[in-house]
Amino acid sequence: MSPPAISVPDAETAGPEEEDAPPKPPVPAREAAALLALRDANPSSELPEIWTAGSDPSQWPGLKTAADGAVVELVLDGRALAAVPAAVGDLSRLEKLWLSNNGIRTIDAGISKLQRLESLWLGSNLLRTASLPPSLSALTGLKQLWLPSNHLVELPEAVCDLPALEWLDVSENKLTTLPAAIGRRAPSLTRLDAHSNALAAVPPELGRLSALRHLSLHFNELEALPGEIGGCTSLVWMTVHANRLREVPPEMGRLTNLSRLSLHMLEITTLPPELGGMSQMEAFAAFKCRLTSLPGAALAGWRVCRRLALYENQIAEVPEEIGEMEGLEELWLYDNRLTSLPKAIGRLGRLQRLWLDRNLLETLPAEIGGCGKLQELYVSENRLKTLPTELTALTGLRRLYLAGNPDLVIPPQVAAMPCLSGGREYGGGGGGGPGGGGPGGGGGGPRGAAAPAGGGVSALAAAVEAFKLEPARREEQGGA
């Protein structure tokens, strides 16, 4: 996503206040010359058309000036730029430089003169590792460095020597490693986006980033995480999905502030019980893995967890400790090997949606009637023979999907429930996931009949949306 361009109203469309506004002070001559140098260094860009000779630079699109005329913001997103010349360093008051979505191949070392620069966005360009000058480390006030969607194969050490840096985005490049120095010399870093690269490992020094709150490492080639990652005790969001991890380090249980964790699409077969130390966990995803069991101690520690996605695994049993998750609202367990549910499921008084499709369930516990806020229950394609009459206590139940249970005999009391009137959900209710009506259900009924709930969206996309694992960039950087 690119930063928004700053627009200047036309005289024809300007409101009364804008027409009566006093004229802007002129841009200082040295800075005007720097802007012209930027224009002339990019003859094939849009700048020659929008920054015309003889016009007032203070009125040029993409600029914001201070009360004395000095340029403080330069936003030239998507203007077909190819180079950033040394003269840009003469914009000595510049605080924000956004040049995303261009064709920039080189950044002159003169940029290091921008001592007031706080935000530098260079995403979606043609930058390579050698394009970033070592003098970049002179930007001692830089807080945001945004380099996604370039051609970086290595992160230069200069990037690690930015003492004020809070947000570093190097996602969607070709990085195979992160420098160890990033953990030693970037003490202010609160957000690190390194997803969608070719990372095979992350340095243990990353665990020194005690101020880090957001860490995205998904879609890489990671085979392991260092135990030192448990030192990032300020972490709130962490995405590690779609890697090659075979185990989760137990030291991650020290991340007591973590509220969102995505571990889906990994090769893990179990989860360490120490994860129960994540007492602020609100949304946990480990679907499409190889899990065969769940640690009761971990579930018992997640009392405030609202969403738990564990579908498409090989889980044979849900531990009784599930009843300790008193804040749980949505539970995805479809496409596993469950033969029964624990009685403790009835203690989930806030549960609203429960997906159990395509398991091996023969019955549901009578205690499920204790889930007083349950609105949607998906148990299609199991081995159900009967249903507990306690389901009638679920007066808020709007959807009950039962298709694909050929031996099921529904008690009259249950058959009379409004959610089964007309037999629509029973005869045509599909399950969650592909071909079903759960998160991302592709259709109700056995592989095709229309389901009331959101068909046509993939299970993966729906779950990621539900977990909101990617916070909005614009909100993160202050609404600009």
UniProtKB/TrEMBL annotation:
Q: Which UniProt keywords apply?
A: Hydrolase, Leucine-rich repeat, Repeat
Q: Which InterPro entries match?
A: Leu-rich_rpt (IPR001611), Leu-rich_rpt_4 (IPR025875), Leu-rich_rpt_typical-subtyp (IPR003591), LRR_dom_sf (IPR032675), LRR_domain-containing (IPR050216), LRR_R13L4/SHOC2-like (IPR055414)
* Lineage: superkingdom: Eukaryota
For this protein, the parts annotated as crossing the membrane are none
Pfam families from the xrefs? LRR_14, LRR_4, LRR_8
Q: Which GO terms describe its cellular component?
A: axoneme
**Which Gene Ontology molecular-function terms are recorded?**
hydrolase activity
Domain (Disease resistance R13L4/SHOC-2-like LRR): give its ranges. 306-402
PROSITE patterns associated with the record = LRR (PS51450)
Q: Where in the cell is it found?
A: Cytoplasm, Cytoskeleton, Cilium axoneme
Region annotated Disordered sits at 1-29, 428-454
Major location category of this protein: cytoplasm
Q: Which PANTHER family does the record cross-reference, listed alphabetically?
A: LEUCINE-RICH REPEAT-CONTAINING PROTEIN 1, PTHR48051
Name assigned to this protein:
Hydroxyacylglutathione hydrolase
